[in-house]
Amino acid sequence: MADADEDVVQTPPTGQVEVDLSDETQDFRFLNHLNFISDTASPSIPKRGEKDFEPNPTEHQADVLSASRDAMHNALSFPRLHRPKTQIIAYYALGGYAAQAELDAQQDALQVKENQKPSESTQKKPPTDASKPPPKPVNISPDACVLVPIPKGQYFKTMGQADRKNRVWLLPEEALYLLERGSLDIRWPSTSDPDAVSIPMSLQAAYACFVGHGGLTLERFSVYTGLKRLGYSFLRAPGWSDEIEDTEEIAPASEPSPPKFHGPGLAGILGSLFKWIHDPRKTASTATGPIVGFGIHRHYMDVYRKLAIIPWYDPVTAPPSKLSDTTPPFRVVFHIYKPSTPFKKSAPPAPDFRVAVVSTRDQTTMPALPQLGALLESTPLDPPHGEKMQRMMYMRLRHGYRNVVMAVVDQGVVSYLRIADSAFGKEKLFETKGGPQGNKRGGRGPGGPNRSKKR
Amino acid sequence: MGRNAVVTLVIDIQPTPAYKLKWLQMATTVTSTEKPVSTQPAPAEARPRAPRPPRPNFRHIHRFPLPVTVHHVPPVIPHNPLSLISVALSYLTFLISPPRQEVYSAYFDSATSSVHVTDENAVKALWQMGFFGKGSLSRSEPSWLAREKKRRGLLGGKSSEEVTRQRREERRELKLERARMEKLAIEERLKAEAAARENGTTIDQDDQSTAADGTANDTATSTEKFSLRKAKEARMLETRNQAARKAAATDSTDQAEKSPNGKSVRFSPVVQKQEFLSNSPSSMKLPDSVVDNIEADEEPIFENEEHLQLSKEEAFFLSYSLGTLNIYDAPVKASQNQPNSIMSTTSLLKLLCNHSFNPSRDASAALQPDDPFMLSYVVYHHFRSLGWVVRSGVKFGTDYLLYNRGPVFSHAEFAVIVIPSYSHSYWTETEERKEYIAAKQTRSWWWLHCVNRVQAQVLKSLVVCYVEVPPPTASIDDIGALLGTYQVREFLVKRFVPNRMRD
């Protein structure tokens, strides 16, 4: 009890409070301030009030509670409609683009024949196209299985892949996401008669069809839909399909590279020569100690340099691993882009984050070093740069040299972890002058001026 | 004694930063409220400030990062031949009378599997130069003697433990006060509601509207919540009013304060934290150990019951790496004729490895490359050799905490957990070994999340440090070579909050 209040950690004052709103229960009274309910919405974002932590017999509290409940009911009772103007109709094409392309080719051929009969005047592009095998567009995934004949709306800026006929092909996760949010109406394929009324696909059917199709697991979909709703853009990473591993049996344990010894180097050799002059009674011995010896030390830096006998991993000189070195759950499956990053489907920039998705029920333990190491080495080197990083050692260490985001999905609950390869060995703390940035009593240098923490 | 003079002098030179002044002001306001019969209605800031005990100059006390003496060579200035002479002189003096490196002694205590240092000078030196060990009767710095003297009224100032206790008391009092205010507000509202009901009117419309849109910007005023700050303000106001009126109304507060809070108080930690940070002086008043310079020449009135306790890794580092510690196998007793023997480094390593198990392993057992001590020592040595001050992280559920220069200067930024890794092909040769390493290296996701959440809460960065374990070797004669077969790799694990990373 005595420790309980001390151990409540002091977080920074307002403005920097790290309140994770997603951890709290929704206060539905906010909904009253949204545009579609109240006619005159205040332009400002409503502030959060203070909480009651236990019931009291006042009517005021009961009123607040019922107001909140009413707001929720009000919001839920809002009619949601599919407006015919914005409705997007898609067709489920199980065979994917390849099958459809064949079908197209046949139809084209048929059409060409029909067209050729009456007249041979106007735009006769199809015959030339149909005669040769359709050049396979590079950017349509074989997993894409939903065809949108008339794509319109903002969603297709970041989703789907267009084919030559300007139809958009959606990947299973994209289709499922759009269907779930009510923006897409997927129809079952009607092979017999193209003009017949096609049957809309239910949500249950969509889940049954799409989850499990082309490597889409429920965990990956949870990650996709969760981040997509926050505005992130997605691309499937090359590590999406597990089949890469089939090309090569996973080596039981690769021979560890000879430990890189970050010893003295040339300057160090010269230094040791000087030290030998300084210190004729060479008592330093790493075999039985003391490592630093009994002699006269000229500087603490020399002492520290002598102490550096433990090899450490250097992410810069380490060779990048191939994708096939990674073991399946620990493999980058998504490249994601922040909402603020200008994203073009045709020419995607370098991803902001690389995400690996792990299901805790299949992989119950956190990765061992070979798995985690291979995962990080499969990402490009991203050393800390920038003026701020130059100044702040803690930031450099936190940023690391490579990084990856691991989404750990435990029965639908996603925890995201950013894992960075931070080389402490590259930051020689003893060389920095002036000691820690910031002050114990008030602010701290890196990571926010007013962070105060427990010792 | 000479050092003390220097300390005070340096403190006087240091300018008082603005936040310290602010803190002083706030401190005085708080103390003023504690005396209700103040005849002066003047603002509290005008009161004379209580002299703050001078803070010891930690920069001076802890100017040596390691308990190793360093002799700087006088600088050589090419155009000044005199400088050459001074260099030559310094060499000559070293040649004639080589300076002796101070070697401290300690003994291994098998009951606690730690190393004890009892000599006062050694305790002081090891703490001041590199923050090794902890006082057996103190939280961290061995301050028992000073606290005891303080308790008996022999010494002024405050030890860090007392500061903490005082801060806790203040906080508890404020919380009770806040609870009381809340209770009062609820009662008032109940009364008002009852009155409204009697009048036959519904509660005024404003109230309804605020209730309906309670989340709008006026919530803070409409709700009857009381923060610590408000409690404090209210208390101040109350006492001031009382003083102005000079009425004997104090009994009402007393009564109210005496009335125990029948309700259990549960507060949101978030709110509480904010209030503390923005207003409470206690948050700024981090424990600073004021007692540092115990007068060496002062006659000890009673025995110092405290000793310095070094962890296994610290002891081995001091002994093997720095050579500044001789470790005996048993405590020195006055009755003993022959002195205890100093343990050799090899036997010390073996002993510490055997004691890294609980219960300790049989002394005859062979050293394994993945003995817990080997792993923890490799990591300890790695970070020490880079200049970090490494201390136990057991408080926060990790293996180590990394301090920049030392705990008195700044909070630890990094918390380290150590996980072994068995990548070498030796470890996967047989099924038996595979099972063995699986048991050793696996950690569950839940465990990781727990550790990670705790570190986020205490504002530390979590470092997962994997140690590559080599295959077993026949001999441990060359400890340096043995340590060189390990490899460490650090990963920084942090919660990624997509909401906050959007731009």
Automatic annotation (TrEMBL), chain A:
Residues 114-127 have a biased composition (Basic and acidic residues). One of its GO terms (biological process) is tRNA-type intron splice site recognition and cleavage. Keywords: tRNA processing. This is tRNA-splicing endonuclease subunit Sen54 N-terminal domain-containing protein. Residues 73-188 form the tRNA-splicing endonuclease subunit Sen54 N-terminal domain. Residues 1-22, 39-60, 112-143, 428-455 are annotated as: Disordered. One of its GO terms (cellular component) is tRNA-intron endonuclease complex. Belongs to the SEN54 family. InterPro entries: tRNA_splic_suSen54, tRNA_splic_suSen54_N. It comes from the Eukaryota.
From TrEMBL, chain B:
One of its GO terms (biological process) is tRNA-type intron splice site recognition and cleavage. Its EC number is 4.6.1.16. Keywords: Lyase, tRNA processing. The active site is at Y403, H411, K460. InterPro entries: tRNA_endonuc-like_dom_sf, tRNA_intron_Endo_cat-like_sf, tRNA_intron_Endonuc_cat-like, tRNA_splic, tRNA_splic_SEN2. It comes from the Eukaryota. Gene3D superfamilies: 3.40.1350.10. It catalyses: pretRNA = a 3'-half-tRNA molecule with a 5'-OH end + a 5'-half-tRNA molecule with a 2',3'-cyclic phosphate end + an intron with a 2',3'-cyclic phosphate and a 5'-hydroxyl terminus. Residues 159-171, 226-238 have a biased composition (Basic and acidic residues). The keyword tRNA-binding does not apply. Transmembrane segments: none annotated. Residues 373-432 form the tRNA intron endonuclease catalytic domain. This is tRNA-intron lyase.
